[in-house]
Structure formats: structure tokens, C-alpha cells
Design a protein that fits this description.
homohexamer, disordered C terminus, 8 helices, 5-stranded parallel β-sheet
Chain lengths: 296, 296, 296, 296, 296, 296
């Protein structure tokens, strides 16, 4: 196999796909980031995640210990993210930067918790099958995905590179819900079932919005730059008002506006503005009267 | 960070989102439930799951040992579920109740196996890519999701709280198929590919039904109670007859009836009854003849 | 529980669902195959996967060690796959066969890498949110799914049974993207978001094709054999030309042709040929003007 | 192998060597007890054991969390020990008993720590190779063995069965130092190197005593009861005064007294009282002048 | 570091210390052998080792499953041992040989259990601190070391290379008791405390013998062959009669005989025959009356 | 438990026994050091430790990869050791120092291997029970203990604090052999069985020396400084010439000299010089002719 080993190791073959690591710099770790999410969940929803027995007396110890672990692990990963991005040299000054960003993130946890409380209420009220807030927190994929989104969004606003994206992808893989950390989402947000939901980088969602599985808030066309490549970061996703419901598998594309209180039925393709209070639905489907084989 | 720790620990902040655990009561464990599913699979399909070498001589020892482990672990988790629900005080009498429910579940395994055998046949017959029953059992996400559903459904009928939902969510996360444990599903049931399938709590499915990926059997609107909240547990999902096929990404909503032998094409929104033998399909799609840019 | 144990162990009950293993033959291991995929990824994209510090000096050692591990583990699993299929007796000659197939696979890695390089470029160019090739390789589910597909496809062409399917299902579970190893896919292929994508066994995809989430390239109807069972392996999936874009949640079924440069809008059902350069979109959706309750 | 399985399962063959477990009672777990020891060490010597970063701010959180875990795990194991002993029926009342004993143990931790502080000083002062207290705490087997002894002794005095013995054996296996939990040992106690040291159940050791490796404080002869069996629990081990040193590999047997300030040389057999201040040593060893082969 | 890597890889440097492995041959695994010992202990002493709940109904399933696992794992390791030894080519015929040896070992388990029952009784009767047979089985290092010895001895008599030695070393590391698998040991054998005990390859021990910690039954001088190297395998260790007690730290060397009923005191060197019924003790130790410093 | 938590957290209680860690400094990790030893063993004895398949082709990859891992992990641990010692502030300059020391250690590996080759030969020649060099390398505790010693000694000579001691203690715990890293030991060194052997910090051992289990080369008395504490680091252990054998359980104390070719019998106490070629043995032991009970 010597020739294959040689071939696979040729530097010129490796353009763009080999990541050389500096001396004391490691790649962000999906495993550690999984831990970080788990710790953050246990801070946001004490007693639901983590094996420990929480009660009024012990609560503060759990919070204290988890905050300290979070600070330590998150600073590490933020540093790895900064080094990966590589816009600055991966020097020791990054340690301080990373420490500060981790701390700034932790400062936001009480606010993040307040928002997530509204999401829990929305999920509970929105699902006749939900038996209790506890069941919603512990089992509902929407809560997991929205928690990861709110965490990732906060980190992105602190200019942490790469890490928010990985945290979002972890929720995507776990729940099938893909919310870009750059999206802006209001309170009382919920997603039912959720598999296949996509919410793009520049999407904006108001308060009290409910999405069903398979809904896309995506981009349609990308203006190209002079070299023929898509222009990065351009505003290209839907803006959703307050009190909107979008049913399963509908696809909203482009920088369009959906007005307050609109209801969008399932399985439709929307690439134009939708006025407030509108109710959209798919054209009625013809029943085929003549059909030969066992299939359509 | 002391102020943040204090803030995150304030009891009044924690309404609805903190779960206090009693002394010797632990939360249901997703890890242990994963084990329980694995054990149950190894009982239902001996030789496919679990590392052991099964043959005619050793079979009974494997079955015996796994039944005993299942009884022990399941009783624990059922107790945790009962305590979590908290409608009864989490006393030691729950130990006996949990033991009995676990045993009653195990008594149903032979019947569950018989049903799953029909599902395996349906998956094999329904997929020209399937090479053998063995491949179907070992690899097909549908079999994993339907197994979890049949297990969760049996537990739910024994009035086990929370645990069935977690087992269903485990399959949802693994396969993208979200079947509520409360649904009622006949024999020879199969789902092809499956990502994005949703089957709601009060859905009823006859025998020999095949769903494709992205099919929703969901709820459309929820009657509200006097306080303006959705009424829990109301009958709100489709009833599917026998010998029905529903193609990819179609969304069936509400307590509607789809008659025997109906075939529903893909990407359509159905919120009215479908007569027996009907064949529904989406309106033909216009080809746009005039279109400037690189996109639609 | 003795009677249940007896009942679960009755041989006649176990037809089709019990896998008896020979003496020194083990089932393919999902865990080991996960390792194999991880190793292969670390060979294809050095420095991104695996914990080690890669640089020009150490690269060849990493490549060398991983090639050796891959050879060893893959040969084991291939043998397990051959024994599982059971068309040949699971003799020791299979050891040699398995060794050879593993080696032949490894010989193809440089070519697989070249193809994947084009996929990375396509994903980067096709997503305005992508910040760098590195981010694409490390985080994008499309790259994970397409890597697994290209690995599984190469193994299938070496007549390795079962293993390719398991590798494809691993990506399916992780990403929601289900690409059958038998499909044929050109260069510069990308999938955005990806959850719910299905690409069938006999699908053929040209160069520079982009799919969005929820796109199905599936089968519509299966000719039956004399016994009324679907004929296995028949050509039944779409053929997609070069430079094609298919938007979210569209379902293309049957052995149809989509010509070069076609653009297919989202949420539509396509079961007829699409000419080159065509642009298809869903019928416009009526806004319902009259609607009573809070829902559609 | 069926006949061997039958034979190994015959109940009459299993007298005295089979332990039947009740329904919800598990054996004490060596793994959990290892955890308990680790937690206790981390409470006694904060910052040395356990991965967390300790400082003045975070200290109380660590202590709080570990006390809670210790209470929970220890109560479980104490219950298992009580059930194993089986003098009471393994009812739920044991839960309360076990909780109380665990709590009573934790109440003693501050005193145990004070005693261990004196042992650390003794080890440091007694070894010219010791560089710091920290090195002694972190590396010296004597500290590990004496910690386990002081923990086990406290549990034994609370009438916890079996568990103290297991904790002592864990130190024995780790360090080669075998101190029975029943022994009584004063302050400023140290053992150098320690492999092979044995301290019996009814041994009593004063303050400021130092033992070297291989020293035995054992029993010599056991009075028999009428049935010819040794009488259990009789006082049969040495009583050592204050300020005593015993050199390597000496064997002190029986209920003898070694007076304050005595020094006992290595490799000697002592089965009579040793007066205060005495200095014992082995008879001088003759050099053999005539010896044929390569050996003695 | 390239030059060091080169240097460490030079083949001529590696004489005698590099083990080249064949293609499908792995080294014996200390981890798997640890499992094998654990399984065997759980077969010999049901209910004490392993997490399962044993009772009359479930016993046979546990035995059945463990026998099957033992057969499988042991055959693997025996093959690895045979390949390591390398007196035969490591062909596939070794699979059959290994299977047979594993089976022959399992056939002996009932007899090994009978012998170990006598050892448990001896340990219990010989230690006034022992509270029950259960405590002896679960905690006493002697039982662990003697179990490993009896297992290793049985394997050695089946001409299994290397594996018995590793099993003995595992007990040595765990307990400090080093019994060569080649030694011959009768019933009702016990070792108190045990650290430092050594029993050589050609030692023979009668029934009802008790050793204390630090006792050596070793070799004194080795006849050399013509090349000046010790002759391998020659009979060179003590032969101990029935009903003998040897106290702590005594060293018996050479092919000497110790007659029935002899009692040998501690800390003595014995290289001559000891008649039946003799009682040996060390010369009395002089108390030094004049001694200056703080030490001897 | 709040009062206990408070009490255990009082800073004044924690003098000398609490280790405060700096921000990005972690304690040395026993687990990582275990890895480091395992890696080093796999470099010194390729093919024996580690799961990989070594042969002439793959050897250099294994060596390369392990050298890189060793460099990385060892530098980390050395830094932790330097910070623990705390004589310098734990700044980032320590990273460079630690890197250099790790590299300097690796440079010595070829020489360490050469010495260990002589030790393997000595162990093989010195034990008639040894079947092959391979068995000696793979199973003999002496080789494990001497390897750890030679590793630890090299690190100590590079002024690495704490780490060498931990590595020595790991071997002590595993084998019962306690060699201080500061000792100086020649070639062809072996220890038979080994449990209880102690070799002190300032001991010097020539070439071709063999020790048996329980041999101590220790210190007898320590000169005190003005404060009454032992003077640290003083020369206080035996100096052993070439070609010396010391039998089991003998205790040599103090800065004495044992001349070339001396043979020292077992169980004796030696605190005076032993001339070259001398053969020492214990006084003959009287057989007691009159003895009442069942014991001595």
C-alpha cells in the first residue's frame, strides 16, 4: 500500500482540504461542544438535564459548578474557533479574548432563559398532545433545536466564529431542524415535529410564530459578484411578522415579507410577499378518475 | 461570575422550567431507555442486535437473560416516569405498580413480534432495492421507527406516562420518522425512506398501508377551551383505510377519512375526505417559458 | 416469565426474523463501520477529523497508520457482510476475498478525494453563508452525506454486500439525506441543508447539480413479477442532466429525464420528462378570502 | 455444552457460593465505591482529585455538589451492604437507615480531614525525598491507604457492613497496604513505601507512629470454639504505643504491647511485649566463607 | 524529530523486542482476558460478580449465556496465544484447536468450582475477621488470586501457551499474590492478606495449607547448561505437605520437603527439608541496650 | 447538610491540603500519564503494546504517529508539573520550556531502548520459567517497573518535577515494585516477582544485578536539621556493585556498599558494608521441640 500512502500524502493534492494545525492549537471538538450544550441546557432548565438531584438547597451548587465548567470549556472552544478562522495569528492573546467572550456569553444566560420560557409555553399551548411543561422541556425536539439556536445566536453576536455553526448543526443532526445562528427570532416561537425545517441566515421571525415540519424559510437566487460567485452574506431570506402559522412542507423563498397574522397552508411554494391576515392554501388537487396500474 | 450564579439560581426565575427531584427518585434516563430499546429489539429479532452468537442451542439463554434485564430496567424507568408525572406521590407502592406494568409489557412481546414480522414483509416487498429480510431488519430505518412505535404504543396502553414519548422521540431523532405512541396502526405497515414522516396521536391506519418520506398525518385546527387554550387530547388526525399508498411530502390534516385502496400522490395538501379507490395528484406544473436570471 | 421466555424462543415463531450466526462469524458492526467512516474521512480531509496534529512532517505517518487500520477493519467488516449475505459458505477463503476488496477500495481513495474536492467547491460556491472551505468540510451535512455516498458507492462496485447500505444509512440518520449507494453522481454535486433528500438506487446525476432539502429522486411504480412481487433492481429512478437545480421538497418520480440546465421549483410533483433549460414551478396559490377560525 | 450448563446450574451444587438477589436489591458495586472514595478524597483534599478548577470563589460549589453526590451514592451502597448482610429483611425501611448512616458519615468529614492533615505532615517530615505537601497528597500511596482506612473506619463505627471492608481492599489492591477498618490508629501516622503492610482488626496504634513496607501487625494463634472453629472477633493483634518506628518486613504477632518510643529493626519476628524505648534488631548475619556454586 | 523516528524504526535495532504480527492475528488482549476472568468468576460464584439479578429461575440463563461468551472469547485468546508462541504456523487449523481447548476448559469448570468451595471454607475458618462466606467470596484477595490460579492451571494443562501466565499476572497485579500456573495446589488452600506471596512453577502444596503474606516458595540456584544459561523448567521449588502453616515473610527456597503438620514461623529463611510436625521459628532478637541517635 | 458544606469550605481549614489552580492550568492527569507510559512502551517495544498490527512496512508510521502524540501529551503534562511545583509563575513561557523538555526526552528513547534490551535479556536468562523474550516483555512485572523507572529517571534528569514520581508510583501500584526515579541503575538489571521491592532515591546499582521480591534498598536514619526536621535529599541509600544477587525480603539500609559479586540471602537485615564476593545468610533457625497448641 506504500504507493497509495505516498499519493494520499502529496501536499499538492491536498489544496483546500487539509487543515494544518499549529503547535498547541486543537480543532474545535464536536464532543466538547456537545458537553457545552448539555451544560448550558442544565443551567437553563435545572433538573431536566444532567444526572444530579436538584432541590432548593442544592440548586446553587449545581449552578455554580456548571457555570465554572462552562466558562472553562467554552473559552477553550472559542479559542479553537478563533484559531481555525485564522484571521488573527493564534497567539496567546487569544486566550484572553476567548475568556472574555465566554464570560460575556454566560452573562446572557438569564435573558436566554427568559426567552426559552416563552418558547416552552408556546410549545405546550400549541400541541394538544403535550401533557405538561416538563414533558415539553424533556422530550420535544423543538425545545432542543431552539435552545441550540438561542445559544448559537448569542455566540455569533459575540463574533465567535465556527462554533455557533457547529452547535446549530448538532441540533440539525439530532432533530432535523436547521436554524442558522444568524437568524433573528422573537419570543413564543415554536416548531411542531420539526423534521426538515430550514431557517436561513438573514431570516427574521416575529413573536408568537409557529412552524410545522418541513417548512423552509430559504433563499431563492443569489446575486453573483464579478467573478460569477454568489455574494456572501447578502440579505436573502423571508421576514415573518407576528402571530403567523406556516403549515407543513411549505417553502418560502427570498427576501419577502409575511404580514402579521398570516396563515400559510402546507406544501406550497411562496416567493412573493404575503399580506397581513392572509390565508394561503394549495390549489385543490384533482382526483384522477382514470388510472391504470396499481399506482398513480 | 457570582452575580450570574445568584441570578440563575433565583427560585422565582425558575417557574415551570426547574424540575425538583425527590430523594430517591431519578429522572427517566435516555441512556437506559436506549438500552431498553436495544434489548427489546434483540428479543424481537434475535441475532440481529446485540453482539452475541445466537443459534438454536443458545437462543433460550439469550432470551432468558434479556427478558430478565428488560424487566429490571424497564420497571425502574416506568417508576421514574410515574414519579415525573407526579399524579401520585412517588412512594414505594409505585415499585410494585412499575413491576406489574413492566411484566405486562413483556407478556405482549410475542404479539408485537408477530406484527413486526408483517411489517418486515411489507418493507421487503415494497422496495425493489431490498435484497433480503435480513437487510431490511438490520438496516431499514422504517423497521427501527415502527419497532419503537409498537413498543411505545404498548407501554402507553398500559398507562405508562412519558416513557413512550421518549422512546418515540428516540426513533424520531434516529430516523426522522415521528410516530406518536397514541396512534393506531395495523399490520403490514411500511414507510419508505421515511425522513419527515409525522403520524399524530389520534391517527388510525389500517392494514397494508405504505407511506413515503415527508408524509404528514397531522392536525389542522384545534378547538380552544374557554381560556383560549387548545383542548388536549381531542380527536384531530386522519383515519387511513386499508391498502393505501401516500407518496412523498403530502400533508393530510384533520380528522378526515381516506378510503380503502386510495392512492395519494406526492406534495399535496389534503384536508377533506378521500373516497375509497381514489387517486389524487397535484395539479400539473407549468413550465415557465420566459425567465431571465440563473434562477426561477 | 418462564412461559414468555419459552414462547419467544420457539423456533417456528422465528422464521425470517432470527439470524443464526456461524461459529467465528460476527454480524457487521455499526460501531466499527462508524470507525471506518471516521478513518476514511480523516484520510480524505487530513486535519479535520481525528484528534491528531497534522502538519507537513507528520502527515505521512498519519496517512500510513490510518491506511493500515482501515485495511484491517474494513476487511473484517467486508467478510462479515459476505457471510451475512450467505451466497457463499462463510469459509476462510472469504478472508482473502475480503482482504482484496479492502485493498481495492483503498486504491480508489485518491480518486474519491479528487471528486470530493469538487463537491466542497460546489458547496462553498453555492451557499452565501459559507465562510471558508474549512467550514464546509468540518460542518456541512452535505459533505458528510456525499462522502459516505462516495465511499459506499465504491464498495458496492466492488460487490461488497450490505456494508455500503449500512454506511449510507449512517449518513441518513446523521443528516437526513438518504442516497442509495447504487446511484451514480457526477462532480461538483451539492445538497443544501439536505434533510429529507432521497436519491434512489438507479438514479443518475450529472455534473454541477444542486439539490435542496426534501428533494426526492424516487420510484413511482414497480412492475410486478408473476408472483405479484415487485421486480428487484429494475431501472426506476430519474436521470438528471448537468447544471440542474432542484428546489426544496420537490418530488421527482420514475425513470424520467431532466435535461441540462433545467431548474425545478419547490414543492412540486414531477413524473414526466423535463426538457433542457426548462424552469418549472408550482401553480400560484390562491389566498383564501373567507376563513372562519384561527386556522385555515 | 448443554450438560455443562446444566451441571453448573444445579442448585445443590451452589451451596455457600451463590448469592441470590432480591428484586430491587443490587450487590454493592466496586465501581460505585471507587467513585465514592474519589469524591471523598476530593472533599478532603480540594483541588487534588477531580478535574475541576478550584479557587476561593468556586470552592463552595464544588464542596456542595460533591456532598450531595456522596450522600446519594453512599446511601445506595450502604443499603446494598445492609441487604447483603441480610440480618434484617431488605425492606424499604432500610432506605431511611441508609440515608441516616450516610449523613452521619458526612458529618464526620471535617474531623477526618483534621486527622489526615496530621498524616500528611508526618509523611512529609518522615521522607527526605518528599518535595512538598502537595506531592505527598497527590502521589504517596500511604496517604491513599490511610484515607481509605479513615473513611472505612468511620463507616464501620456506624455499623455499616461489608462496605468498609471493600473500601479497605480497594486500597490494598492499589497500594499493597492492608489495614483492617476495625483497627484503631492515632494521629501523625505514616507508612513509608508500604507494600506488604498488614494491620489487623484489633490492632491499636498510638500517635506519631511510622511503619515501613512489609510490616505486619497480625494475629498468631486463634482460640477455637467447641466446634473447633476459630472464635470470631477476639482481641488478637498488637497494641503499639506513641512515637514508635518499625522497620521493613518485621512481623509482630498477637495481642502484645510495644511501649512508647520503641524502635524495631527490620526482618524480625516479634511475639512478645516490647518495653518502652527498646531498640530491637535481628541477630547479625554470618558471612559464609565457603560456598561452592554461583549461589548461596 | 524525523531523525529519532528513523532511529527508532531501524529494524536492526529491534532485535528481540519487536513483535511482528501476521495479517489476521492479534496479540492476546489483557482487556479481553480480564473479561474472561470476570465471566469465569461469575460462573463459579453466581450472583457475586456481574451486574445481573440471579435467582433460581434465571440462573440457568445466566450460566448459559456466560458459557457461550466464555467459549467464544476464550477460543480467540487461545488462538492468539498459540500464534504468539509461534511453534506452529498461525493457520486456520489453529481455530479448531483453540475451539477444542476452550471447550475442554469449560468442561472442567464444575470441578474447579468444587475445589474453590473448599478454599472459601478454608479462608472463612482461618480468619476470625471473616463475617460470612459471602464476604470472603466478594472481598478476599486470596479468593481472587486462587481463582485465577485454578483457571490458569487448568489452561496450562491443556497446553495453552502465554494465556495462563497473563491470567496469573493479572491476579499478581491486583492482589500482590504471584502463583505460577504450573504449581500444584491441593484443596482447602488459603492465603491470609497475601501481598508478596510467591509460589513457583514446580512447587507442590498439599491439602489444608495456609500461607501468610510475604511467604515465598521459590528457587534457590539454577543449574546452568553448557552455554552458561539456566536450564529451563527444572524441578526447583518446595514441596509442602498437608496441614502446614507458614507465617508472614518467610522464604522457602529450593526443591525441599516440608512435612505434614509443620508450622514455620515468620521472617525466616528455609533451604533445607523440614520434618513433619516440626515448628520452626526465628532466633530471638536481642534488644539493643545502648543506642545513640533517634534510630537503630 | 448546609453546615457541613460550610465547614468543609472554610479557607482556614484548608491550609496545606487545598490546591488552587490557576486559570488555564490543570493538575497533572494520572490518566494522561498512563497514556504516555503506554505510548512510550509501544515505542520501546513495537508490536507488544497498542492494538495496531506492526510489520516492516507499517513500523515507521506507527513510530511517527506515536512520537508526535508523545511530544504533544508529554509537553502538556510537563507544563502541569512545572505549574504544580510553582517555583516559577505558570506563564506561557513554560509552554516553550515544556516543549523542549519533552523533545529532549524523546531524543533519549533510542538509548533507553538499548538499556531495556539488556534488562529483557537479564530477566529471560534469570528465570527458568521464562519461555521467550516475548513473554518477558509482554507479561513480566519487572519489565514494566524497570521501563517506568528508566522513563521517570530520564525525565527527572531533565528537571521535570512531580511527573517522574507519578510515573514511578504507577508502576508501584501495578507491580508492587517501588523504584525512586532518582536511583541510578546499570544494565542487565532484573527483579524476580518483585512485589515489595523498594529502591531509594540515592541508591546506586551496578551492572548485572538481580533482586528478588521484598528486597529493600532503603534509608536507616535521617540527620535532622536545626528545626528537627529530616534534611531533604541527603545521600542515604545503599550502593550495590556489579554481579550482585539479593534474595527475597532482605532489607539493606543506609549508605553502605555491597561489593561486586556478593550474594545476600533472604530475610536478613544489613546495615553494614558487604565485601566483594561475600555470601551472607540468615542464622539457622531452631526447630522448636516443645510446643503446645496448634500454633507456634
Amino acid at each position: 500500500m506504500q504507493h497509495i500512502i505516498q499519493q494520499l500524502s502529496e501536499i499538492e493534492q491536498l489544496k483546500n482540504i487539509c487543515h494544518e494545525q499549529g503547535n498547541s492549537v486543537s480543532m474545535p471538538s464536536v464532543e466538547v461542544l456537545g458537553n457545552i450544550v448539555q451544560i448550558t441546557r442544565s443551567l437553563l432548565f435545572p433538573g431536566y438535564f444532567g444526572e444530579a438531584a436538584i432541590n432548593e438547597q442544592t440548586l446553587i451548587y449545581h449552578i455554580g459548578i456548571q457555570v465554572e465548567r462552562l466558562q472553562r470549556l467554552l473559552a477553550q472552544q472559542i479559542k479553537s474557533g478563533l484559531c481555525f478562522e485564522g484571521t488573527q495569528s493564534c497567539s496567546e492573546q487569544l486566550d484572553t479574548v476567548a475568556q472574555q467572550k465566554a464570560q460575556a456569553f454566560i452573562e446572557q444566560l438569564p435573558d436566554i432563559r427568559k426567552q426559552l420560557q416563552t418558547d416552552v409555553v408556546a410549545a405546550y399551548n400549541g400541541d394538544p398532545a403535550a401533557k405538561s411543561y416538563g414533558e415539553v422541556i424533556f422530550c420535544y425536539p423543538a425545545i432542543r433545536a431552539i435552545s441550540n439556536y438561542r445559544i448559537a445566536h448569542a455566540l455569533l453576536q459575540l463574533d465567535v466564529p465556527l462554533i455557533p455553526r457547529i452547535i446549530a448543526e448538532m441540533a440539525h443532526s439530532e432533530t432535523g431542524i436547521d436554524i442558522h445562528p444568524g437568524a433573528t427570532i422573537g419570543n413564543y416561537f415554536t416548531i411542531d415535529h420539526g423534521t426538515g425545517v430550514v431557517i436561513g441566515e438573514t431570516a427574521v421571525i416575529g413573536n408568537n410564530v409557529k412552524l410545522y415540519q418541513g417548512v423552509t424559510l430559504g433563499a431563492k437566487s443569489f446575486p453573483l459578484d464579478e467573478a460569477g460567485n454568489p455574494i456572501k452574506g447578502i440579505d436573502r431570506h423571508p421576514k415573518i411578522g407576528n402571530n403567523v402559522i406556516i403549515y407543513a412542507n411549505s417553502t418560502l423563498l427570498g427576501n419577502i415579507h409575511v404580514g402579521d397574522g398570516a396563515i400559510i397552508g402546507g406544501n406550497i411554494w411562496v416567493d412573493k410577499d404575503v399580506p397581513a391576515g392572509a390565508k394561503l392554501r394549495q390549489n385543490p388537487n384533482p382526483t384522477s378518475l382514470h388510472s391504470a396500474g396499481g399506482n398513480l
